[in-house]
């Protein structure tokens, strides 16, 4: 009886992958524009933490540059510019940002208006917002001021999920730096407009990623969705 043939003789593994397929050398693109967007049009420019996330680094990247002049153009101008830009939300729906901001009533019924930023990011596998809060927090804070002014809001609340303790620390530091510079608070950026920004930490409930559930949790209630209509822009 012949000896059994070893597996190695039947299935000889190639020494390198190139013996199976031809692998071309990686070519790095020098392209600096994609569709109608150029490299310099990127909103978030420090997502990989190439520079400092704090106020000095943010100002070098153009954050807080002539913010007072932007606000001086007026609230309707800001919303119209955002609409014309084609800016969309970073969620799955990609809802037009300017259109969403325009839902806020232009005339107050006596109640104050607030901007609420959903930084709960509880959807499994979603890892987009945390990098902004870690590495480009001033872009978010300045954006909150500009959009909040355009929506006639008096303050912004950033709702961060409980597990994001480091992201919350980064946001709180950036907000404090903005207050120290006079960019937030009374007469924000010298504009004559008062605007505050607060960080609110959730408890990690998945349902609080839904806007009305988030608002319920922000008000200290169980994070459970409301029936719609009425919508948050009209009822708060």
Element layout with pairings:
Elements: H1 7-10, E1 33-34, E2 37-38, H2 55-60, H3 67-72, H4 75-85, H5 97-101, E3 114-119, H6 129-135, H7 137-150, E4 155-160, H8 165-180, E5 196-201, H9 211-218, H10 232-235
Parallel strand pairs: 3-4, 4-5
Antiparallel strand pairs: 1-2
Helix pairs in contact: 4-7, 6-7, 6-8
Q: Show unreliable segments.
A: 1-26
- Roughly how many Å is the radius of gyration? 24 Å
Strand numbers in spatial order across the main sheet? 3-4-5
The N- to C-terminal Cα distance equals: 86 Å
Query: How many helix segments?
Result: 10
In short:
This protein is of the alpha/beta class. It contains ten helices and five strands. Helix 6 packs across helix 7.
Would you mind describing this structure in some detail?
Helix 6 (129-135) crosses helix 7 (137-150) and helix 6 (129-135) packs across helix 8 (165-180). The strands form 2 sheets. The protein has a 3-stranded parallel β-sheet, with helices on both faces. A two-stranded antiparallel sheet has the order 1-2. The protein is built from 10 helices and 5 strands; from the N terminus they run H-E-E-H-H-H-H-E-H-H-E-H-E-H-H. It has helices at residues 7-10, 55-60, 67-72, 75-85, 97-101, 129-135, 137-150, 165-180, 211-218, 232-235; strands spanning 33-34, 37-38, 114-119, 155-160, 196-201. It has 236 residues and is of the alpha/beta class.
Top keywords for this entry?
single chain; 236 residues; 3-stranded parallel β-sheet; two-stranded antiparallel ribbon; globular
């Amino acid at each position: 009886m012949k000896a059994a043939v070893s597996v190695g003789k039947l299935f000889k593994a190639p020494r390198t992958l190139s013996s199976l397929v031809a692998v071309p050398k990686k070519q790095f693109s020098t392209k600096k524009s994609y569709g109608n967007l150029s490299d310099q049009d990127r909103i978030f420019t420090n997502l990989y933490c190439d520079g400092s996330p704090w106020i000095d680094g943010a100002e070098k990247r153009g954050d807080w540059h002539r913010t007072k002049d932007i606000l001086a153009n007026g609230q309707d101008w800001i919303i119209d510019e955002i609409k014309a830009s084609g800016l969309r939300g970073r969620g799955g729906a990609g809802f037009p940002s300017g259109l969403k901001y325009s839902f806020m009533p232009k005339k107050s019924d006596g109640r104050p208006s607030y901007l609420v930023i959903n930084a709960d990011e509880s959807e499994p596998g979603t890892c987009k917002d945390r990098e902004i809060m870690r590495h480009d927090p001033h872009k978010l804070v300045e954006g909150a001021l500009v959009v909040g002014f355009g929506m006639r809001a008096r303050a912004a609340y950033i709702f961060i999920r409980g597990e994001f303790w480091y992201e919350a620390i980064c946001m709180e530091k950036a907000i404090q730096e903005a207050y120290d510079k006079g960019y937030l608070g009374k007469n924000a950026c010298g504009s004559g407009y008062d605007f505050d920004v607060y960080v609110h930490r959730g408890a990690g409930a998945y349902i609080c990623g839904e806007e009305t559930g988030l608002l319920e949790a922000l008000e200290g209630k169980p994070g459970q969705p409301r029936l719609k209509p009425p919508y948050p822009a009209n009822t708060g």
